[in-house]
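Need tokens for this chain, all 615 residues.
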Amino acid sequence: MMWRNAAAAGLLWQAMMMGQTASPEPPQIGKPRILKEADLRPGMRGVAWTVFSGTEPEPVPIEILGIEKNMWGPGEDVILARMGGKAERTNVAGGMSGSPVYIDGKLVGAVALRLSMFSPDAICGITPIELMLEVNAFDHSKPVEAKTPQKARAAQAAALDPMLAHVLASSGPGAAGLNLTPISTPLAFSGFSDNAVRLFGGLFEQTGLTAAVAGGASSLPRSAAPAPDWKTSLRPGQAVTLALVSGDMSVTGMCTVTYNDGKHVLACGHSFFNLGPADIPMAKGDVVTTLASSYQPNKIGNATEVVGALRQDRHSAILGELGATAEVVPVSVKVRAFDESNKLRNERDLKFSVMVNQKWTPYLMMLTLFNSIEGLNEYAEESTYRMSGNIELDGEPKVSFATMQAPGEMPVPAPMMLATWWGERFNRLYLNPVDAPKLKAVSATVDLLPDRRTAAIDTAWLSASEAPAGTTLHGRVFLRPYRGERMERDFAVTLPAGLSPGDYQILLSDADTLDRAQNAARLSDRNIGISQTISLLNQERVNNRLYVSLIEPSPTLYYADKALPDLPPSVMNVMQTGRSGAHHLPASGATVVEQGSIPFDLVVNGAYSLRIHVK
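Here are the structure tokens for all 615 residues:
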């Protein structure tokens, strides 16, 4: 497929180095012959294939320098080599990971690592193809060292310890001197604002990806179904992309195909997120250009059409299946901007899909919602955001949600607060310790309102301070809005018939005050399944309402998604004593009887309590 003997290989390598036109034939789909690592010798010359621009791979001269023993682990070596040709100008660029290396027509492995950042020599590390072919052969578990947002956050928290901080500070890239490291994977954000990439890009860069804005609109379709030409796609040396998000906006990582046997594809020569078993849409790539740099050379490109699904993501390679369809979550977001007279002045409908992974999907939901808001070019510092929608699940009731977010005294902007609240809904679903959710569709509407809409509960009064059971009392509550006249609303409370004589409280409160006890119960029970989690999400109150409740001095026991109010102490003791070790039954010292709520078009904060004596 390449050349017939070592002498011809040497002459061709010299011709390529001198810029002459002779070049070997590019590799084709099919099982290639393998050159084993044991047969390699320093000074052997071959060719690597990679795309510098467009979709067609170009040959790059390769000279074998030697073997780095046990680089990946015991018995897992890396081949050290020098790249020539165009790579001398670009250096070992991000996106070259996976570029197949051939000697005498036999596949050696994939360009996967680079040596230092500022070296003028294009020195690379090659993952042997023998190691890559084992990616699906043995372990199908999830690696402990998977690159997830939680791991990045844990590393930051660990750095707060002074001793550990010194260790981490002394173990940076420069501390180890010359060191082979995996080539960074370019992560292209299409249809994203600079601010969204700046705020969320660091999360990805901590996992070894290089985030960059790739353009104003995404060309990658929302559907994860493979294109009709998948059988002839992803030849060795061509660019392959993994779609974290696709549709009206996209997030895609790019590397190079090493091996394609007609059904299965090996690429990268190192991990993407090191997730182990994975299910991510796999697409063709189009390289716009390769940026030359001694610091951070990178391919700049776009994903074009889906042709399969990633199945394994491990330290020596990623494995994709051509013609397969990855599971994704279809998302629809409508963003509307209103003026001071509540008239609609701008609107945008966005449709995209998000890959399914219990650790990454919630963060991708945060990113895409934040970008959806920014994409309207209407949001300002004093804007309030009103959001509602549904999460549809297979075999479960849908999750309905609603909230408002407004600027406050915290330094976090309201769009990020809303995105965080949104992401937490998905965190509670995907991190469920009992069941794995299967999301069918997500829809949301976000309204941008032109001012800060918040109000704090100030004071209240009742028509009487004592009354017999069965009486309906009337009252008035006053709220202090952010800038503006004090607001007042009437409310009514009915004392239940048969209520024992004594002192009680009427609580006027925001949603968080009432949800606090129930949320504490949720956090203390690690055996709540998906059905119970959905029930708890649907029971949460909305923060643009003022809630009126009667507080009775009798305990409430919480079990999963159920509240068991007004239990006699003897019953509570039996239940708590007889519970299994797997379930925790938290209790509160009072029973809350919700009497009703008052709607507002603003965020309600605070609480106020009134005392009532029942005769």
